[in-house]
Amino acid sequence: MDNTNQMTLEFESRSQNESFARTVVAAFAATLDPTIEELADIKTAVSEAVTNCIIHGYPDKIGTITIRCFISGNELTVEVEDYGVGIEDINKAMEPLYTTRPDLERSGMGFSFMEAFMDELEVESVVGEGTLVRMRKRIGKQAIKGYTQQTG
Fold it and tell me: Which member of 18, 22, 38, 48 is catalytic?
């Protein structure tokens, strides 16, 4: 039997949709029977990614955000994508405390939080076309950051 599962969610880049998005991802991830801490980590990372789309991807308009989630074995992959302005320098954007929106009192810690709360983080972006954030987290007692033990 195939133990993979996936879902896609599409919504407008409105701040009130951020909590909706993280709740949907948490409900999807619940099939892995995560701990409360693992679930909180996932929700925080999704919140940061969605907030980045709202604040930075679509600074002057409402656009579309797409979340795709995949479960394979004990690993959850979450992709958060916008079709907005894109990121000119991904390495710079991922530096702690760096923000392009100091006017909004942004902390510049979004990517740092995503990296801290998930096991893997990848960012792809094209200026004028949008940004894709891909995060992975292994769930369960055998999951150790950077290492997954196979049991059987």
Answer: 48
Residue of 106, 115, 120, 136 marked active site? 106
| Segment 78-101, tens digit of pLDDT | 999 999 999 988 888 887 666 666
- Written as six digits, the tokens of 113 are 């939080």
pTM: 0.85
| Weakest mean pLDDT among 14-28, 60-74, 89-103 | 89-103
Write the CATH number for 135. Answer: 3.30.565.10
The reply to whether 24 falls in a domain is yes
Catalytic residue among 18, 22, 38, 52: 52
Residues of the domain holding 94: 4-144
Whether 10 is covered by a domain: the verdict is yes
- What is the total count of domains within the chain? 1
Range 56-60 average pLDDT: 93
Q: How far is CA 59 from CA 62, 122, 148, in A?
A: 8, 22, 39
Residue 104 lies in a domain: yes
CA distance 47 to 43: 6
Element (H, E) at 28: helix 17-29
Based on the residue annotation, tell me whether 106 is a catalytic residue of this protein: yes
- What is the largest distance, in Å, between two alpha-carbon atoms of the chain? 53
